[in-house]
């Protein structure tokens, strides 16, 4: 049965530009709204016919983006009843999937070209959406520990997992009780991780976050009379800002990783600002990492990258591969 959108209006912006996602990313090209409407009828409240005669949504509307995410997660990964509170970070699913797929390639390069199926991954700052563990387990069967400093966010993530029991068995939520810590208090004395991942807060203060939001509204030719803290993807508090911003957070992450050098094969983080990279490389040199890599990701007009580092020398890397991935 064909589900029709409830409202037909001409509204811009249309769909985002075509992207250059990872080859294994399920979200290539434009969104198939007819298929997504079948996956989640709630999306019909937000779908319209744009100026080009195509089905679309208003990508500046956080409620519309959340409904799109619900449909994408159900259609592509079988995730049911995904939801987040109003004003929490509503991540763009295709871009989040790209990080996961690039991490899979990183592991494969360390495992004779084969993506390990038994990886243990730590997601720092999983938020209310729990996106990385949901996609990572769906695509590769990995097990996750997902941490956050916000108990309310973890409570929402737990509700999502309760609705998706097949994933709940493989995703463990942990509260970080020390807002100044990253790995400390999360990684147990008897735990080892093949990967850590993180999408750190961009801004250094609430004022900076609001200014960034206003620039986005102006670029769209829209006004933000409510002075919302973020644009279509939402976000609040530590999701958007922290002391020192992205640069300060990643530098603290690097310093803490040096305290547990053999407890993880690859430490990784997203880096939104290319200007942050020199300070990251300096910090990595100061803690004497064995190897570090920068992997660029291009998504339409947006450019991002991830930085990965390891303290393991070649002998330790071979032993890790034998013990945890290949058995030989």
TrEMBL record:
Keyword ATP-binding: no
UniProt keyword annotations, A-Z: Cytoplasm, Methyltransferase, rRNA processing, S-adenosyl-L-methionine, Transferase
Location of this chain's protein in the cell: Cytoplasm
Catalytic activity as recorded in UniProt: adenosine(1618) in 23S rRNA + S-adenosyl-L-methionine = N(6)-methyladenosine(1618) in 23S rRNA + S-adenosyl-L-homocysteine + H(+)
GO MF, one example: 23S rRNA (adenine(1618)-N(6))-methyltransferase activity
Pfam family, one: Methyltransf_10
UniProt-listed GO biological process terms: rRNA base methylation
Principal cellular location given in the protein's record: cytoplasm
Family designation: Belongs to the methyltransferase superfamily. METTL16/RlmF family.
Name of protein: Ribosomal RNA large subunit methyltransferase F
Organism field: Sulfuriferula nivalis
Phylogenetic lineage: Bacteria, Pseudomonadati, Pseudomonadota, Betaproteobacteria, Nitrosomonadales
Gene: rlmF
